[in-house]
Amino acid sequence: MSKIFVDACLGKDTPYTPVWMMRQAGRYLPQYMAVRSEVGSFLNLCHNPAKAAEVTLQPLDIVGVDAAILFSDILVVPNEMGMELSFIKGEGPKFSHPISTLEDLEGLLGGEEAATRLTYVYETIAILRQQLDARGDNKALIGFTGSPWTLATYMIEGEGTKTYNICKKMLYAQPDLLHKILRKVTDVVKLYMEKQIEAGVDVVQIFDSWAAAIEPSRYDEFSWQYMVEIAHYLKAKYPHIPIIMFPKGVAAFIERGLVYGDFDVFGVDWGTPMALAKEKLGDRYVLQGNMEPCRLYSQEATTQCVEALQTIMGGKRHIFNLGHGILPDVPLENAIHFVNECHRVSGK
Fold this sequence. Notes:
- By secondary structure, the protein is of the alpha/beta class.
- The chain has one domain (4-346): TIM Barrel (Alpha-Beta Barrel), CATH 3.20.20.210.
- Helices cover 51% and strands 11% of the residues.
- It is built from 16 helices and 9 strands.
- The strands form 2 sheets. A 7-stranded parallel β-sheet has the order 1-4-5-6-7-8-9.
- Helix 15 (299-313) links the parallel strand 8 (286-289) and strand 9 (318-319).
- The longest helix has 25 residues, at 175-199.
- The chain is globular, with a radius of gyration of 19 Å.
């Protein structure tokens, strides 16, 4: 039996519009927090295939979403390339030695050598594949990666940033070095995604969380072209595996007609009007999104948005989702309400 979520990604008719939420395995779930407390840290959870699989499946049973997304973190990629990663409570991820020179970059692992080190991710997927198949409910499993640009921002800045001044200084003052970093990361990510597919994911998503940090006229050069390259590489080998692209904050990029590439689904962030995305992209790509995550604090506001999205999309070539990740203090019952409302308004 085919999976409704996979069919929707490929633009096929489905009995209802499927829904999932970015960051759906996370801190808003008491059950997640219990497992997190048990293993001791976020990174420990990422490195524990059995526990990572457990929290991956929690939203299926508790919230009722139509797809599971692998529990991991985008920064495991540079971590296994050789960058020392830690998560500081209240501050987020930090790399102890950010990249600032070509010598720093050359000291990192690349290609197959780096991708092979991510064994705990592939082991998690293998466990999930077995468990999902045994359930028989045909829920899909989504694998993912950060985009080369988003990964590079952390690798260069050393941590999260609001200004991106260090990596953007490199973009304008040392573009050749930045392209070398992006090339090395891209080559690892291609193999990382390939190994996720071989391990058993049904769909892959490429997150470009920091897309809006680049001015639209330079976005293709320093981010989108690398994402497209990854998608083309995967499509050539696995044409049956849907690919979702999610660049956050790129309404101006969409308006200029600059979206291209061999992929299936375009994730629409909450700052981009869904009607605009449909006008510019809806004939070429299935659209995913794009409810403002903070609407989840109000069931009334959630219902209003779900009904509005249904009116715009008409239940065709669409996947319900948030326009970014669910926030940790959202009431669980409101997340369940969102999923139920998506199923209600789109049921045929």
